[in-house]
Amino acid sequence: MRVLHDPVGTTCILVALVIIAACAMAPWLAPYDPTQIYAGERFEAPSWEFWLGTDHLGRDMFSRVLYGGQIALQVAFASIATALTLGLALGLIAGFGPKWLDAAILLLFDTVRSFPVVIFGLAVLTVLGASLYTVIFVVAVTSVPTFGRVARTQTLSLKNNEFILAERSMGAGMGRILRVHVLPNAIGPLLILASMDIPIVITIEAGLSFLGMGVQPPTPSWGNILNDGFSYIRQAPWPVIAGGMPLIVTTLVFTFLGETLRDLFDPKLRRDL
């Protein structure tokens, strides 16, 4: 695999695997219950007992960061998987269907994309209520047009190729053509786009939680950890650092990983590795 010959790509893969594994194993790695309050341990500095210190309620920051990472990755993977699936299906239909259907789907994409993500998210969360599943719904809906347009473009570029015309002349149905020929060629760019969207989704989730419209306390999220930290930053800076550093590292790692995959698999950008 060419990505393993790229130092940046290899490093990003290793760090991403460590982050995913640490968050997935939070119930076993976290030394404390992330919601447990220790009133006598408020604003404890980082130590061997509390690796990242404690917050204003005496909760262990290291445990909260691990569980907050679970929330961030759950939102990212669930929403992107949903958006990719729906966008791929709509893109294939738009690219291979009649012109009126293509125009209708494009109008739907443009309508969704006309709303700023944060404003749309705040409106939906106000109506449906703030929760983990509502955040996933908001991110998935606003991401569908991006994946759909890429899938549509890939489908249109293949639609009139000679091997597709040959298949149709032999009586192959639209389902077989899409499944056997179009889908394998369209899925590659979508997977690269998905890897590059992960840091965006993580940032959106953290931003909504920071504004109080995402995951609600006492459930730990990197966003509400930062919100609590900024409220008491004069008393102790480590809650802000503990909540901000994993967010920065995770978004950077997945951003560089996505760009590396794009450079490797896009013939126009491919580098000699």
Description of the molecule:
With 273 residues, this protein is mainly α. Helices cover 72% and strands 0% of the residues. The chain is built from ten helices and no strands. α3 (61-96) runs antiparallel to α8. The radius of gyration is 22 Å and the shape is elongated.
Helix and strand arrangement:
Layout: H1 7-24, H2 26-29, H3 61-96, H4 99-113, H5 117-128, H6 132-159, H7 162-169, H8 174-210, H9 222-231, H10 238-265
Primary descriptors:
273 residues, mainly alpha
- Cα gyration radius (Å): 22 Å
**Shape type:** elongated
Helix content percent band: over 70%
Largest sheet: none
Beta-strand content bin: under 5%
Class computed from helices, strands and strand pairing: mainly alpha
Q: Give the CA-CA distance, first to last residue.
A: 11 Å
Low-pLDDT runs of 5+ residues are 269-273
Number of contiguous helices = 10
Beta strands, count: 0
Average pLDDT number: 83
**Element pattern in H and E:** HHHHHHHHHH
Summary, kept brief:
Helix content is 72%, strand content 0%. By secondary structure, the chain is mainly α.
